[in-house]
TrEMBL record:
This is RNA polymerase-binding transcription factor DksA. The lineage of its organism: Bacteria, Pseudomonadati, Thermodesulfobacteriota, Desulfuromonadia, Desulfuromonadales. One of its GO terms (cellular component) is cytoplasm. The gene is dksA. Residues 6-75 form the DnaK suppressor protein DksA N-terminal domain. GO terms for biological process: regulation of gene expression. It comes from Syntrophotalea acetylenica (Pelobacter acetylenicus).
């Protein structure tokens, strides 16, 4: 992959990471600010499930943040855009759609097939 394209992906990943970190910070402060009393048990229950929902979202965000950091590391190490399974280049269109991907479409399809059987 040429330097120009790498730079493009680096910028893309960095802005994604920034947006995620900003949102994650917002969620945390919203949760800690929220010390209000809910005398009605139904309100309390719905508040609890909202929190569970937020925590799940944050778990997914955390994983995505990790993936983006790993992708940025691959850019640094010059392995970005290589399939980690067969070491063939991952298609540029596939990378544009999902820059954190580590598998080419063939290996990904194979992996999903195995997961379905397993
Ligand atoms: Zn592959």
């Amino acid at each position: 992959m040429d330097q120009e394209t790498l730079k493009e992906f680096k910028g893309l990943l960095e802005s994604q990471l920034e947006a995620l970190l900003r949102d994650a910070g917002k969620t945390v402060s919203e949760m800690t600010d929220d010390q209000s009393n809910f005398p009605d048990p139904t309100d309390r229950a719905s508040l609890e499930s909202d929190r569970n929902f937020e925590l799940r979202i944050r778990d997914r965000e955390r994983k995505l943040i990790m993936k983006i950091r790993q992708a940025l590391e691959r850019i640094e190490h010059g392995t970005f855009g290589e399939c980690e399974c067969c070491e063939e280049p991952i298609g540029i269109e596939r990378l544009r759609a999902r820059p954190v991907t580590t598998l080419c479409i063939d290996c990904k399809t194979e992996q999903e097939r195995k997961e379905k059987i397993g």
